[in-house]
Structures are given as structure tokens and as C-alpha cells.
Amino acid sequence: MWTDSFFRGIAQNLRVYSIARGAAIMNNSILNWSRSLLLVAILGLTSPVIAAVCAGSSSSLASAAPQADFIRAYRYDFASPIRLAVDAAGSVYVADSKRGEVVVRAADGRVLQRQQGLGRPGAIAVDEAGQIYLADLDTGLISVYDSEWQTLFQFGVGEIQRPGDIAIDNTGNRVYVSDSELHTVVVFSGSGERLFNFASEGNGDTQLQYPSGIFFDPLRNEILVSDQFGYRIQVFAANGDWLYCLAGSSARPGSFFQRGRQLSAPQGLWVDALGRVYVADSYEGQIKVLDRSGRLLSRIGSFGSTDGELRIPSDVVLDPFGRLFVASTNNARLEVFGIDAFTDPEQFAPALLAIHPATLKVGSGGSISIQIKVPGYRPADIQTDSIRANGIAALTVEIGDFDGDAVLELLAVFDQQAILATLPPSGAANIHLQGALPLLTLDGTVSVEVMPRLVLDTDLDGVADNLDVCVETPVGAIVDASGCALLQLCSCEEMKSHGHYVKCVTRTAKAFMASGLMDPKQRKQATKQAARSDCGKRHKRHKHSAHEDHKNRHKHELDERDGQHEEGEQDYDDDRQRRKHKDKKSKQANMNKEDRS
């Protein structure tokens, strides 16, 4: 029967090895360990590591096993979530080494921040003042940020080879960093000055084999360290003195399949208010809960890929509401369990969003579409008339398989100009979408790029050509919103008289001053210049015109009079000719009469 056990052991180790190859664990120790397991299983070698048997704390009080209830799983586009931290408000920080980012989720479920461009972030911690300590896996650099991710100071380069985890005491004066490469714990001051280190490589009481997780217990003033290949939890005093260990193997020393051991590959760990120790066992795919005597109280979760199951769990944190968050690295998820009489302040269900187009151009019309998926909910569960993006209601909402993955989702269409009105004029921006679910609100954020409108201003008066009423404005002239200068609004050539010109300038300058374009001194100066100007005088346009009008009128009167006179003379001449003709005709008649007689 031993052969069955042997080959079952090979199968288990092959499974973990294949899982670990794709996990991208932050310090490569799990990967190396999995490779070692494979070689030992195939070649029948014995492990060089001899795990110690731990007696636990002699002052430990018996603790009851915690009641754990699965609540939900977060995906949020994780690639390799490996280390967790929680602040006093209950916000959970997730370091994703593969994406080079830290995601901050509020206690109510909202994603507060997604800080990117962080190299290969691994170990992370938040002190009571809200300062964020983040270690880079490749360089060992530990950067300290404020809550807005502004760098305060850095330390650790050349002093840390492979940061496994970070713990900070309750005063903020000491920072403990486990170094998986050097098998030790390095202690720094709150300002980053190296103070001392403790532990060395080995399996003795004061030694460690690839330490990973670390936790400061403020109730006992103790430092708990996950001893990965010692298969135990080592406990030290705050000054580095060794105190005791938990969960060491009870199997035959040196044997490979140590069936009696309680921990197979301990990673992150946490201690609750009752002193119970929660340990992420990355090999078993479980969270194991120990009391301070080393007794195994319970197991949370099981190996698998569905919600609530774990593959390579790498870290755990317990928030102020009694919720246990687990980084399931190979599932690329954050699993949440409620412990004992927990409370769940979450009011939001995270939505996965995809937007088209992702680049929005100011001034362009049309619409934008957002695909909406809410893990754990059907599209029909969402009240479609409740969907808002930056407070703007959707034009239409449809249900269908719009991305071809054989899963139904929502497609909400919005007016692009209405959305652009809620965004900055250019650069990267976020669109925040919400909608109503039964008892919850779906909540998601998607990033877009805003491209500004290409503005032409030919006359350089500060008004775009498409809004500019007056072209060829003099350089440096004060213009109104329509792009017109004072002298363009009061053109001398369009005035009836010099007085009209002065009145126009005075009125317009007053309006400019009321709009903040001119000050009283400039207004007064403009009015004086208008009064002293030669508009209507220099070219004598107005006087010349009046004189010409008078001259023309006088000439017209003379012409009319002359015309009337000429007409009278013509009538007189005609009458005279008629009389002369009549007299001649009468005389001729008389002569004819005399001849007949």
C-alpha cells in the first residue's frame, strides 16, 4: 500500500508544481519549493530540512474555533494578488506584482485607488498614521507614501535581498521586514534607519528557512514569522529574542511526506483579538487557524478555482468588521469570509466595465457604449433605468452577448457630449458608473482619454476662429467674447457723425469695463481718445457730405426754376407765332376779298 501513497504524493506535488509555475509568487520561494518537491518525489530523495517539533506558548489560553462564512469574491482584473494590508478605516490594499499596481478598496466595497507604475510591488503595510510601506521584489527598495501616494522617503536597498513581508509595531517606531533570501528579519526605525536583524538560516529554535509572512501582535508585543520550509510559525520578542514556535512537524525528521505536519508552506499570517493565528497554507490551498499552543482549531476554504476556493493563498488580513480577506494568487481573486459575529458594511457590488470608444474627442458628437458585467448577478437583476455614468442617465440599455464570450451582459449607451461635460478638458479621466441591484448598488469605474478640440485662432486674439465675429483684430487689442475690439465695434466709417462715434465708444468701453475687460482708467482713456480723434474731421467726410447735399439741393431748385422759366418763354414764343400767323392769315383774307370786289 505504500506505493499508492507514494504515487498519490507525486500527483499532489506535480499539481502544486504546475500551479506554482503560473503563480508568479512574490519571492519565488514557493516556485523553488515546488520544484524541489517534484525532484524529491520523482527521485525518491529525502528532504534536507528537518522541521522542529513546536510546543507552543506555555501561557496560551484555550481558544474556540472561529465560525467562518464565505461572503464574496473580488476579481477586479487582478493578475497576481500576493500581499495585503488593511488600514484603521477598513480599507484593504492589494499588491499585484504582475500588474505593478496596488488596488485600494474601501470597507463598503468601492474601489478608492488603483495606483499603477510601482515596479514589482510585494510586501505592503499601512501604519496607524495612514502611511503606506511598499517593497519592490526585484530591488528590495521600500518606499513610504502618504495617503495620496506622494513619496515620503525610501530605504532598504542593499540591506534587503528579497522582501517577504512587512510588519509595523503599534508605535510606528519599528518596522520589521522578513528577508526570504537571507533567512532573517531586519528591523528598521520608523524613519528607515537600520537597527538590527535577528534569526539566521537553519531549522533550530532561532533559525528560519525562507521566511515569508510576518505580523506584529500588539496585545502580546510579539513578532510572528512564517517559516516556510521549517513548516512552522516562529515567535520572537520585539527585541528579536526567540520565544517559541507553533505547528512544527510531528513526523519523522527528514522524511519527505510529513503527513503529521500542520503547515505545509505557510505564507501570510494574521492574529485576531483572541490571539488566534490565521495562516495562509499555500500548498494545501487553505487558511489554517491555530491557537497559541499550536493546536489546529479549524480550516477555512479548500483547494479549487470556484468562488470561496483557494489556489496558492499567499496572504490574509482581518478588517475591523470581522471580515477575513484572502489573496488567492493563482485564482487571481480576493476571497472574503466573515468570522464569527462579523458585520458587512459593503453596499456595492463591483462591476466590470468595458467602454467604446476609449478615447473621447471634445466637440465630437455621437455616443459612447459601456458593457457592464456584475459577477454573481444576472443582467436581468439590474434595474436598467437606474444606470448612471457620472450622474448621466443612459440613452438605451440592452441585454445580450456583445463581446462574444457566451455570457450575457448589459450594454448602456450614453450621449458623448453629456459625458464629456463631466470630465476634464483633456488627459486621463475616469467614468464612474452605478446602478441598482437587489439590496446593493452596482459600482464600477472605467478609464478614458479626453482629447481636446483643435482650436484655430488666426488673428491671435484669444477667440477661436469658429466663434470670432471680427477677423484681423489688431494684435494686443482688448476684445470681447465675440473676438471684436472696441474700434471694430465702433467703426468710424459706419458712424453718421463724429458725435455718434464718440457716443458708441463711450457706451462700448463702459460695457467692456462691466465685463472686466477694461479698468476705469482704460475706459476713461478710450473715451478721451475718441473725443479727440479725427473721425469725421480728418477726411471731412461728414462736412463735405453736408455741403454737397446743400449744393445739390440748391442746384436742383435752380434747375427747376430755370426749367419753369424756359418753359414760360417757349409758351410765349408759341403764342406770338400763333398770333402772327393769325394776323397774316387775316390780312391775306382781306386782300382776297378786295380783289373779288
Describe the structure.
With 597 residues, the protein is α+β, with helices and mostly antiparallel strands. The protein has three domains: 68-347, Neuraminidase, CATH 2.120.10.30; 354-449, Immunoglobulin-like (Sandwich), CATH 2.60.40; 488-531, no CATH class. Helices cover 22% and strands 34% of the residues. The chain is built from seven helices and 36 strands. Strands 27, 29, 31, 32, 35 and 36 form a six-stranded mixed β-sheet that branches. α1 packs antiparallel against α2 and α5 packs antiparallel against α6. The longest helix is centred in the last third of the chain and has 56 residues, at 541-596. It is elongated, with a radius of gyration of 46 Å. It starts with a helix and ends with a helix. Residues 1-50, 250-258 and 540-547 have low confidence and may be disordered.
Instruction: Give me the secondary-structure category.
Output: alpha+beta
Number of domains: 3
CATH superfamily of the largest domain: TolB, C-terminal domain
> In DSSP terms, counting alpha (H) and pi (I) runs of 4 or more, how many helices?
7
Strand percent estimate: 25-35%
* Multimerization state: single chain
Apparent shape: elongated
What fold name goes in the CATH topology slot of the largest domain? Neuraminidase
- CATH arch. level architecture of the largest domain: 6 Propeller
Q: Overall pLDDT, averaged?
A: 82
Kindly state the number of beta strands: 36
> pLDDT below 50 for ≥5 consecutive residues: which ranges?
1-50, 250-258, 540-547
Helical content, roughly?
10-25%
Q: What summary fits the major beta sheet?
A: 6 strands, mixed
What is the first-to-last residue Cα distance? 189 Å
CATH class (first level) name of the largest domain: Mainly Beta
Q: What integer value in Å does the Rg equal?
A: 46 Å
